[in-house]
Amino acid sequence: MKDKELLYADETFAIRGVCFEVYKEKGCGFVEAVYQECLEIEFQLCGLLFVPQPRLQLEYKGRKLRSEFQPDFICIGKIIVELKAVSELNDEHRAQVHNYLKSSGHRLGLLVNFGHHPGVEIERIIR
User: What are the tens digits of pLDDT across the range 28-84?
Assistant: First the structure.
């Protein structure tokens, strides 16, 4: 991969398009669960592969924990998509995605905020 190329550029372009479409239809002001459901419908309509709220195992020093983590989506088998519906993203939200990436072994996460106005806010987080 060339230094100037974005990781999974085509895949993230498709995911971003789905997010823009949902925001165009619903705007801001709903709770996260509404956007989760809308994205599931839009991913299906676009034929984009996704797993909603997968339960993923956590480990500590090589031992499996009873606790699991559950990102909002894993898309195309390699991109974690975490949703928020807040007025502003903060470092806790970003840390959550970093932890999901580290724990899952995935390299790219998209932090998507539907609570932002005047448009959906999307941050790429790379591990």
Answer: 999 999 999 999 999 999 999 999 999 999 999 999 999 999 999 999 999 999 999
Name the residue range of residue 78's domain.
9-126
Q: 111, 34, 45, 107: which is closest to 73 by C-alpha?
A: 111
> Is the bond leading into 71 cis (omega within 30 degrees of zero)?
no
φ, ψ dihedrals at 31, nearest 5°? -80, 165
Q: Cα 123 from chain centroid?
A: 9
Residue at 108: amino acid letter: L
Q: Is 119 helix (H, G, I), strand (E, B) or coil?
A: coil
Question: What's the burial of 100, exposed, middle or buried (CB within 10 Å: 0-12/13-18/19+)?
Answer: buried
Is residue 75 a part of any domain in this protein? Answer: yes
Indicate the pTM of the whole model. 0.93
One-letter amino acid identity for 61? K
Cα angle 108-19-90, degrees, rounded to a multiple of 5: 60
Q: Is residue 87 situated within a structural domain? A: yes
